[in-house]
Amino acid sequence: METEHEWPPHRQTLTLPPPSRPRPLEPAGPPPARTARRTMIGAAVAALLTAGVLVVLPQTRIGGGHDAPPPAPGPVARALTAVGAGAPAAAADLTALIADRRAWVRTHPSDDASWAVLGSAYLGRGLRAADSSYYPRAEWALRRSLAVRPAARGNADAQIGLAALANARHDYGAARTLAEEVRRREPKRWTVYPVLIDAYGGLGDLKGASKSVEQLLDLRGGSVALAASGAVYRERGWREDAAVTLTEAAAYATTPVQKADCLRQLGDLAWDRGEPAEALAQHSAALRTDPGGHAALAGKARAELALGRTGAARHDYAAAVARQPRPEYLLELGELYESLGLGADARAQYARLRARAASDDGHGVSDALVLGRFEADHGAPESAVERLRAEWRRAPSAAVADALGWALYRAGESEEGLAFAKKAAEKGGRSALFSYHRGVLERELGQSGPARRDLEEALRTNPSFSPLLAPKAREGLEGLGELPEGGPKDVYGYVPDPPGAGSGSGASGSAGSPSTGSATQKPTGSGSKPPKRKQ
C-alpha cells in the first residue's frame, strides 16, 4: 500500500498543457445538472488566499456522475462541511479528506470534481504546513481533473485550484492569467476573486486588487470576503479600515482555524503600527484558538522581542521554525541571534534558510524576495541585485521595490536604490522598514532633511521593527545631529504620489517631488476609500 509521499502513482502519465500556458476557456458552461454541484465544489479554493488553508463546501454528490456516499461524522465530514460558505479546515481534517478522496478516485478515476477537491486539499495541506512538497501532488491532481474534463468544458474548479497553486508558488502572473480566464467566463463565481486579490497584490497592482475586493463584496459577505478585504486594506495603508474589517471577519468566523487566522492578521496589523503588546495579545489569542498556527507563533515571538522578553522570543521562534521552517522565519531568527552576538547560531539559521529555499525551488516555489533580502544584508549584495531585478520584472510589488532599492545601496548604487525605495512608497508600501531603508539612502546621498524625516518615521511607526536595524536607525539620527536654526530647506522631504500615478513598473520616470505640506504628512496609499462591505 503506497504512502502519502508515494502519491500520485508515477506509473500513470498525463500529457497536459503547462501551467503558464493554460488553454483558453470557451463560452459554453457546464451542463445544468452539474452546475449546482460545481458551484459547491468551487468554494474549495476561496480561503486558500485569505486564510492560507483550504475551503471545501458540503456536498453529497462529488462528481463525474458518480454518487459519492456522504461521509460519516468525523474529520472528513468536518473538512467537507467546513462552513458552508467557505471556511478553512484544520490540518488533521485535510489529511483525512486527502485519504478519503484518494480512495474514491482509485475506483472512480473519471470523477473530475473529486480530483479537483483532492488537488485543492493537497494545496491546503501544503499551505497549512508551509510544506511545498505537497504542491507537485496538488498540481498532479488538479491537472488530472482537467484531463477528465477540460476547463473549456466547464471545469472552472480545477482551473481556480491551479491559479491558487500559482499564487502559493509566488507565480502571480500565471495566477492572474488563469483566474482572469475564469472571471471572464463566469463573473458571478465568487470563489475566483480571493485568488485574483492575491495575484494582483503579488504583482503590485493594488488597483486591480481593490477592484477584485469590490467585486467579491458585491457577491459575497461573511468572514472569507471580509478577511480578503482587510488584507488589501492593510497593504494600501488603510490601517483603521483593515482593523475594523478584520475584527468583523473574526466575529463572523465559523471555525476555530478561520477565526485564528483573522486574529493573526490583527496581530500583524498591530505590529505594523508599533503596538507590540496588542500584537502579542492577538497572536496569543490566535494560538489559543488554533494551536497549530505557525504564523501566529512567529508573530508572537516578534512581539515578545519588542517587549524585551528575549528568552520567550527565542523559544517561540525556535518552535515556529521547528514546525514550519519558512525562509522568512529562519531569516528573522538568524538576525535575532546575530543581534545577540550569537554568530554561530545565526549562521546555522542562514544555512537552513538556503537549504529550505533550494527545496522550495525544487517544488516550483520562488523565494526570490526573502533570498534577496538575506543576500543584501549578509554578504552577497550583487547577487541580491541580480535576483531582485529579475523578481521586479516578474512581480513589481512595493516589497520587491524596497528590497531591490536596499540591495542596490548595499552594492554601492545608492542613486538608483533611492529611486526604487521611492517606488515602494508610491505603490502604497507603508512600513518602518521601508522608511528606514529610504532614510539611509537619503543620508548616503547627502539629503539630510529627508533622511531625518524618514528615520524618525521608521522609529515612530515601530521602534522595534528589527533587532539589527532599529538600533542603527537611532544611531543614524544621532549622526545627523540637531536641526539647524530655522530648519533645513528640505525639512518635509519626499512625499510619494498615489499608487498608479507613476510611469510604469520600472524605476525610471518621476520618483516624486519635495512637498510643501505639513511635516506630519504621510503617504496614504490611495486617494479613494475602501468599498462598502456586503454582510
TrEMBL record:
SUPFAM superfamilies referenced in this protein's UniProt entry, alphabetically: TPR-like
SMART domains hit by this protein: TPR
Stored InterPro entries: TPR-like_helical_dom_sf, TPR_rpt
Biased composition (Pro residues): 16-33
Region feature (Disordered): 1-35, 478-535
Superkingdom of this protein's organism: Bacteria
Name of protein: Tetratricopeptide repeat protein
Compositionally biased tracts (Low complexity): 510-520
Upper lineage: Bacteria, Bacillati, Actinomycetota, Actinomycetes, Kitasatosporales
